[in-house]
Write a structure and sequence with these properties.
41% of the residues lie in helices and 0% in strands. The chain is mainly α and 128 residues long. The longest helix has 15 residues, at 3-17. Bound molecules: heme C (HEC). Heme C binds next to helix 3 and helix 4. InterPro entries: Cyt_c-like_dom (IPR009056), Cyt_c-like_dom_sf (IPR036909), Cyt_c_1A/1B (IPR002327).
């Protein structure tokens, strides 16, 4: 990870805590994010509209309300989560999916490397 992307991540976190519009994940590498997604997320998540697997479709997830996919049986914790999926919210969730307020239904240990998270978020941002 470059110093610049660390700075961007800090900006994204700062921006979300000030409730200003979310920063973009443009500093992540969407191609690397796609490869990582196919290795680590695709078993549970489709990226096309209306296809739910073990997890909900992640099409157009950026800035979407949590638990918004119809016909997916979300956990109570996810349904109670009102914070939209901004870059910063996704970053926090993917760092530790089972450790924060979102609940434990996503049986995935998370992505400890900030560069991996920036890349996969950059990929998700392009799913529209
Ligand atoms: C073992 C299966 C599994 C894996 C692997 C997995 N997820 Fe999930 N994911 C889930 C489940 C199940 C939920 C629903 C969680 C809930 O309802 O609490 C979920 C929820 C989510 C949500 C919230 C969606 C919404 O509609 O609110 C996002 C974003 C997400 N996952 C991203 C990812 C990403 C990115 C990866 C890979 C880095 C990943 N997940 C890997 C199963 C998985």
């Amino acid at each position: 990870m470059t110093g610049r992307s660390i700075f961007a991540l800090m900006l994204a976190l700062a921006a979300s805590s000030l409730a200003t519009p979310p920063a973009s994940a443009a500093d992540g590498d969407p191609a690397a994010g796609k490869a990582l997604f196919e290795r680590t997320c695709e078993n549970c998540h489709a990226v096309v509209i209306g296809v739910n697997k073990v997890g909900p479709s992640l099409w157009n997830v950026l800035d979407r309300k949590p638990a918004a996919v119809p016909d997916f049986a979300y956990s109570e914790a996810m349904k109670a989560n009102k914070q939209p999926w901004t870059v910063a919210a996704l970053d926090a969730y993917l760092a530790d999916p089972r450790g924060d307020v979102h609940g434990v239904k996503m049986f995935f240990k998370g992505l400890p490397n900030p560069a991996d998270r920036a890349n996969v978020i950059a990929y998700l941002e392009r799913l529209k």
